[in-house]
Design goal:
heterotrimer, A mainly alpha, B alpha/beta, C mainly alpha, A: mainly alpha, MetI-like fold, C: mainly alpha, 74% helix, globular, ABC transporter substrate-binding protein (chain B), SBP (chain B), Bact_solute-bd_prot1 (chain B), signal (chain B), transmembrane helix (chain A)
């Protein structure tokens, strides 16, 4: 009985917490009149009009935004994962003093608010002719605070990797590159999952960097595209929720699919 | 297993290499030899996406090989967005309704030629800064007007006030009757500025039309008693509850709706609001000037216009052509007259020649433009020599919002003085 | 040590990128903070400490700092209390509870922009909440329009996102507590509260450190939620320092001054994050 009561209460609290998401979800499938008449009612009658209207926008906000987001996120994560895990292995093999110095430098990246470095980065990219390019945005992602986060996750995880395994591989004559690739990288898989999932999420949801680096002419990511397109005075909630639904579907589905890895990653992260 | 992982790494590296080599500029379109211009616009309930698209089509009809790519500012603050674009190297070729003074020091804007201005406009120098014009003076505005709900006034036996004392009395009576006396679009600084702009323009500039030039010369200050008195009037209205609860949460679109739905008695807004009043609603609404203490009529006046040209654009000549074509297009002006309440200032085309359908509210308010009366610069809004130093207009607008929470009028005006001196010096 | 070959170039490439895109911009910002750089003027001059002295006499900066600290403290406290409460409530390993834990995290998966748009449509003057209130003939409430309520709304929305994160971290941490410890405590006659204090708290202390520090760091950067939800209004009362510094840069064109504020923000974030980490780690050791 108490057990059932507990479960009932837990569900109540969870559903209350998720109410805004429920609202965004059901209202994506209702027309404006239905939404204002009763925002919380389920979508009956059901309409796909909001989604088709969002997809038929002449500026291709949703389609272009999603493609840009996928490219930028995939490239950033695919470069960051090997780069940061190799770097972390390299760092953890250094003498304590060098290691401490390098880690102190990378700790900075965790603290720096993006606003602090944004304008100089834009200036730098202009100097080298990479302003308003995906390359510029991806480089800024790879070299910025995300690298710091990945380094800290990997270095923390590597502390738990037994030295003997690495030494054994060395005795077998493997160079550091091979030790990293064949021994270390497979062993830090949970850390890789954490890094890939979190960075993927953060890069996808990033706001200021794409806003300034890509600019309005060269196509936006979906996150900034939504910001730039939904005007201040828009009270067309059907349209708004339709766009939100399409913009959110990829990260949410991605999360639901990868949540087992996700929880594992978090657990290893949280207990470190 | 190792193979798949290696291929992941390989693909990552090759992606990176590919991106680096290609320089990858997505979404760039070229159109075989023609010129593509970028045009920064902004959207309001009157100036919709369709209006801008149509106006661009109309203006490019007469130009060969010019296509225009529209950039829409994410908020109504296109001025800040223009600076943001400039900082990231994407300053547009043509810009709609920015504050030219902000961009002049950097030489970013190209003036229009005087002969063209003289030939086409009633006040060719209405937007001139140091003798040069960066926005064609195509139309004019009274900013703000006091719009009022005739039905509500009749219902509560109120007449149009002609002095400040009567105005305050009308507000008090509406309040007592349970009607929000004055509608405010307080959510954004530009629209929240209206009462302040009205009071300072009428009470301060009405007495000394050269006040802004004197402020530049350091002869007057915001902390002078006459300014403090004018601004205190707004603070007193706030304290009397004249703007209703939660006025700072109401955005421009919501405010329009509430006023037109009869939820409030009066509304201080630029004359462009006339365009939001439909023909069916027109009999219930009218406009008057914000009254002064002695009842002297002061018109806070702004010569408007839209298009500024980027002087550093690779296509500056084409951009200027487009800007001129846009500004003289009778179709564009007709739409602006109908939807944005624009009072036309073209030399060659009279109001009746546009074929625009306007309401009696428009014609009544237009009389203030045509009549021989005291017109002063609408402070914080004009784009000529009376424009405030860069950034100060925004602080001035925000002051109108701060008056809702801060009782110390003089200290806030002192902060404005400090900001002015800093901005004008640099 | 010849075998090191191969890894070092990759590592130093990473360091180089980091130097280019983080260390250099940081130094550049520091340098600009000593100049009167204005993007709309051709040249800038060295002005020494004058930007830093200007900060002392800037009531708006003070207001943004006060607001930022208020939000940071409120969000950190609310997110950790509710996050821990949720984690404890949902700390069972059945399908039901796994689904609940999955649902709770969704706000964190969405971008700040989308979260803020969803909440804006709920809280705005003609929004869903006021529409619902109108159904029961209640007066509309200016959730984003009165200075106090707007601040509360911002705190609530940011907390909502952060609770999601905190819950999952605490849930993960709770699962590292061996059940035997509870049994042992129970045998010793410890009550629920005592068990929580003596067993749970020490075991989840590292999770708490992570939550608190990440919460501090991310809330200090707060920008996108404010940009969408209130635009800094009403009357600039919901401007975070991170928001204000971009406004100084782009409305007032004062890049030099904006860089000085950026340095202040960085010093504050780093100082508070380091102090809190230090204190919590010390406490972890004591527990």
């Amino acid at each position: 009985m108490i057990r059932r009561l507990h479960t009932g209460f837990a569900w109540l609290a969870t559903l209350l917490f998720c109410l805004p998401i429920y609202l965004a979800l059901v209202n994506a499938f209702k027309d404006q009149r239905q939404i204002l008449a009763n925002p919380a009612a389920p979508p009956a009658p059901f309409t796909l009009g909001n989604l088709t209207r969002a997809l038929q926008r002449p500026d291709l906000l949703v389609q272009a935004g999603l493609i840009n987001s996928v490219v930028v996120t995939a490239a950033s994560v695919l470069i960051l994962v090997p780069l940061s895990s190799a770097l972390s292995f390299y760092i953890s093999e250094r003498t304590p003093r060098v290691k401490a110095a390098l880690l102190a430098m990378f700790a900075l990246g965790l603290m720096v608010p993006p606003q602090v470095v944004l304008l100089p980065i834009v200036g730098l990219l202009q100097t080298v002719g990479l302003q308003h390019t995906y390359t510029g945005l991806i480089l800024a992602n790879v070299g910025g605070g995300y690298l710091s986060f990945a380094v800290f996750v990997y270095v923390g995880f590597l502390r738990g990797v037994p030295r003997e395994v690495i030494e054994a591989a060395r005795v077998d004559g493997a160079g550091d590159l091979r030790v990293w690739w064949q021994v270390v990288f497979p062993m830090v898989r949970p850390a890789t999952a954490t890094v890939a999932i979190f960075l993927g999420l953060w890069v996808w949801n990033d706001f200021l960097n794409p806003l300034f680096i890509l600019g309005p002419l060269k196509g936006q990511t979906i996150t900034t595209g939504v910001y730039l397109s939904v005007g201040t005075y828009s009270t067309d909630y059907g349209q708004l929720f339709g766009i939100m639904f399409l913009a959110a579907i990829i990260p949410v589905v991605g999360y639901l699919v990868s949540q087992r890895e996700f929880i594992h990653g978090l657990m290893s992260g949280a207990s470190k | 297993m190792p193979r798949t992982r290696r291929s992941v790494l390989l693909s990552a590296i090759s992606t990176a290499a590919l991106l680096a080599v290609a320089g990858c500029t997505p979404g760039e379109s070229s159109n075989g030899g023609g010129t593509t211009l970028t045009f920064l616009t902004f959207e309001t309930p009157a100036l919709t996406a369709k209006f801008w698209d149509d106006s661009i089509t109309d203006a490019t009809k007469q130009l060969d090989g010019v296509t225009v790519k529209k950039i829409v500012a994410p908020t109504s603050d296109r001025n800040a967005y223009a600076k943001q674009l400039q900082a990231s190297g994407q300053f547009p070729d043509v810009l709609a309704s920015i504050n030219p003074k902000d961009f002049l020091d950097a030489g970013l804007l190209q003036p229009f030629d005087q002969a063209w201005l003289d030939a086409n406009f009633l006040q060719p120098n209405g937007n001139a800064i140091n003798g040069k014009t960066y926005i064609p003076p195509t139309n004019s505005q009274i900013l703000p007007m006091v719009f009022y709900n005739k039905d509500l006034f009749a219902k509560h036996n109120l007449t149009v006030p002609t002095t400040w004392a009567q105005f305050a009395d009308v507000a008090a009576k509406l309040k007592a009757a349970g009607v929000t006396p004055i509608q405010l679009a307080g959510a954004e600084p530009w629209s929240a500025s209206m009462p302040l702009v009205g009071l300072v323009s009428a009470d301060v500039l009405g007495k000394n039309p050269n006040w802004i030039k004197d402020r530049y010369a350091g002869k007057v200050k915001f902390t002078d008693p006459d300014v403090v008195a004018a601004v205190t009037k707004q603070r007193n209205l706030v304290k009397a509850g004249a703007f209703g609860d939660g006025a700072l949460g109401v955005n421009y679109a919501d405010a329009n709706k509430q006023f037109l739905d009869g939820k409030s008695g009066m509304y201080l807004m630029g004359s462009w609001f006339i365009g939001q009043i439909t023909a069916a609603q027109a009999k219930s609404f009218g406009g008057f000037l914000l009254p002064t203490d002695d009842g002297k009529q002061i018109v806070p006046f702004n010569v408007g216009g839209t298009t500024s040209v980027n002087a550093k654009s690779a296509n500056a000549a084409k951009a200027a052509e487009f800007a001129k074509a846009w500004s003289l297009s009778p179709n564009n002006l007709k739409t602006l007259i109908e939807t944005d309440g624009a009072f036309p200032m073209l030399k060659t085309v009279k109001l009746e020649d546009f074929g625009a359908t306007v309401t009696p509210v428009f014609t009544d308010c237009y009389k203030y433009v045509q009549e021989n009366n005291t017109k002063v610069s609408s402070i914080g809004w004009v784009n000529n020599d009376d424009a405030l130093p860069p950034g100060v207009a925004d602080l001035f607008y925000a002051l109108s919002q701060q008056l809702f929470t801060n009782d110390d009028v003089k200290a806030q005006l002192a902060a404005l003085d400090t900001a002015w001196d800093k901005a004008a010096k640099k | 040590m010849t075998r090191r070959g191969g890894l070092a170039p990759i590592a130093w490439l990473a360091v180089l990128l980091y130097a280019l895109f983080l260390v250099y911009p940081l130094c550049r910002s520091l340098f600009l903070s000593f100049t009167d750089r204005n993007p709309l003027k051709a040249d800038s001059t060295f002005v020494g400490l004058s930007n830093y002295l200007d900060m002392l006499d800037d009531p708006r900066l003070l207001a943004t700092l006060r607001f930022t600290l208020l939000v940071v403290v409120a969000v950190t406290v609310v997110a950790n209390v509710f996050g821990l409460a949720f984690a404890l409530l949902l700390n069972r390993n059945t399908a039901n509870y796994r689904v609940m834990r999955t649902l709770i995290f969704i706000p964190q998966v969405l971008s700040g922009v989308i979260v803020a748009f969803i909440w804006r449509s709920i809280l705005t003057q003609n929004g869903l909440l006021n529409a619902a209130l109108a159904q029961v003939d209640a007066r509309p409430v200016a959730w984003l329009g009165s200075t106090d309520l707007a601040t509360v709304s911002i705190c609530a929305v940011v907390s909502w996102m952060t609770i999601a994160f905190a819950t999952v971290v605490y849930s993960a941490a709770l699962r590292t507590v061996p059940p035997e410890l509870y049994e042992a405590a129970r045998v010793d006659g410890a009550g629920a509260l005592e068990r929580f204090r003596a067993v749970t708290l020490p075991m989840i202390a590292p999770g708490m450190t992570i939550n608190v520090v990440l919460c501090l760091i991310t809330t200090f950067k707060l920008y996108d939620v404010i940009a969408v939800l209130t635009g800094g209004g009403p009357a600039n009362t919901t401007q975070s320092t991170a928001y204000y510094l971009l406004e100084v840069a782009f409305t007032q064109n004062l890049f030099g001054y904006s860089s000085a504020i950026a340095m202040l923000l960085l010093a504050l974030t780093a100082g508070i994050a380091y102090t809190v980490t230090f204190l919590l780690r010390k406490r972890e050791a004591r527990l």
